[in-house]
Amino acid sequence: MKLRIVLLTPILLTLFFFRCGPENPLTARDARARAEDMVKSAWVKLTKPLQSGTEGPQSVAFVSWEYRLSPPFPASWPPGKSGTLYYYAYAAGLSAAGLMDTEILGPLWARVRIDATGQSKPRLEILSREIKQIGTVGVQSLPQGELTLYDNRVIFEKEIFEAAQKSDARLVKDPDAKRFYCTWGKDTGAGAAIRRFHPEFFKWLACGEN
Fold this sequence. Notes:
Blueprint: H1 2-20, H2 28-45, E1 63-69, E2 73-74, E3 84-95, E4 102-115, E5 123-126, E6 135-138, H3 144-151, H4 153-165, H5 176-188, H6 191-195, H7 199-205
Antiparallel strand pairs: 1-3, 2-3, 3-4, 4-5, 4-6
Helix pairs in contact: 4-5
């Protein structure tokens, strides 16, 4: 009986620390999926008011709103030891009365705080409960260079995520990671609103200087 206890003890200890210890560090893909789930749930609960004079979806003034999710943005740069990143949600819409090559830009309405080390759970923060037009963004065919950037966005987001997770900016090895973030911010129109939360990261990106 004593022999069985001695043999089982390492297994029991392993199970104990696995279940009671901190969560395993997240992957970039898992973090984005968690942020997406939280944003999607919050979006359903938000009121999307009709524009003045709008009677419903059949009206030419009706705006069809949807949410969009940003790449991960490190809480500090160079990354600190917290492993914290944020995913931002902004609103974008289309109107039957608008031009085909124009998208309506809504507000930055939420962000999800992610602890990439797995020490704490994701947390949603509502930044605005009023969904309205704050501008427009041109919609056009992208040049091949930009298409390539978007095709590789998973790689660039992973590098930024892991740099924050491991507190090492040197893990961002692909110079196109900077280009992707700058291009995404310009194309979506959301970069300007996010910049105020991450001034040092945008200083490092040097958008418009390269």
